[in-house]
Design a protein that fits this description.
The protein is α/β, with parallel strands linked by helices. Helix content is about 35%, strand content about 15%.
Length: about 300
């Protein structure tokens, strides 16, 4: 059976931002917004604009799991008012505890499913807050948590099933080195394209695909466009989905057509609004796993795909 690191896995970007609302409190992940007196003075209007450009998913956690999403990009912050931990992206979303309980419920009824949780950003969190989050992980997911494995040579689904492991947790904070069930950031490179251009995005994805990742590591291909403040101001009446995502997801589907899984192929692909075109992208990822894996650089066919 193929190593997990060689499989093609569908993920979502800012996975739980579907829990944001236009009435949510402003979160600390964007300090310029969080500390702006102007933003706070125009709270109702500002929050609506932030929501329009911060909400990257329509499906909630359960819907994403049912649609085949197995990699979750998570950003967490403490809310000063109550000291609890929440999902954030511009605004506060749901509590982390709610998300973990939903995941446990799904995994408990699907014992052969494995998910990857990537805690990408952790804001306004001190030692005690990290302890609180790790306690939630252990209390809710418990024996499902897979300890860090440095040598992935035999890291297959069968290996995980035999041990009852269903959750791999990547934790991008130095505290990871003190907990055996946390995988360090170095084990999953996740380069960010940081562009609003579809042409540049596709070139970025192709470059990552052709170079491929280091042996013994996962690799995330981010198919996301990122608006800056100037871009948002030029498109105040729009939103992320209508202005950027619909077209970028259409192009991603085309780009995926000639790709393969394997040590020199794709590994984890994330995008915004995974429900696009009736979940066409997750379905495409499932289909690609039936292709022969690319095992060497000699097999790697360079993509000649251009934006049409």
């Amino acid at each position: 059976m193929s190593n997990v690191e060689f499989m093609l896995i569908q993920g979502s970007h800012d996975s739980l931002s579907s829990s944001l609302t236009p009435h949510s409190d402003i979160a600390p992940d964007e300090p310029e917004l969080y500390n702006s007196l102007f933003i706070r003075a125009t709270s109702c209007l500002s929050k609506r604009i932030i929501y329009n450009w911060s909400c990257t998913q329509a499906f909630d956690c359960k819907q994403q799991l049912e649609a085949g999403i197995r990699y979750f990009d998570l950003r967490v912050a403490k809310k000063p008012e109550d000291g609890l931990l929440y999902i954030v992206h511009g605004l506060y979303g749901t509590e982390t505890k709610n998300i973990l309980e939903t995941m446990h419920e799904f995994l408990d009824t699907h014992p052969k499913e494995v998910i990857l949780l990537d805690f990408q950003h952790l804001y306004e969190m001190n030692h005690f807050d990290h302890h609180k989050l790790l306690h939630q992980l252990m209390e809710i997911l418990g024996s499902m948590l897979c300890p860090y494995v440095a040598d992935l040579t035999e890291f297959t689904l069968s290996w995980l099933w035999e041990r009852g492991f269903q959750v791999i947790v990547f934790y991008r904070d130095p505290v990871a080195q003190y907990h055996p069930f946390l995988w360090p950031a170095e084990s999953i490179p996740n380069p960010w394209p940081n562009t609003r251009s579809i042409k540049n995005l596709l070139a970025f994805l192709t470059g990552g695909y052709e170079r491929r990742r280091e042996a013994g590591k996962f690799f995330v291909s981010q198919s996301v466009l990122t608006p800056n403040l100037f871009y948002i101001m030029r498109n105040l009446l729009g939103n992320l989905r209508s202005v950027l995502v619909n077209e970028s997801n259409r192009q991603l589907l085309k780009w995926l057509e000639d790709k393969h899984p394997g040590p020199h192929g794709l590994n984890i692909v994330i995008c915004d609004f995974i429900d696009y075109n009736d979940c066409a992208i997750p379905q495409s990822i499932v289909n690609l796993n039936h292709k022969s894996p690319i095992m060497s650089n000699n097999q790697l066919r360079k993509s000649r795909y251009e934006v049409i």
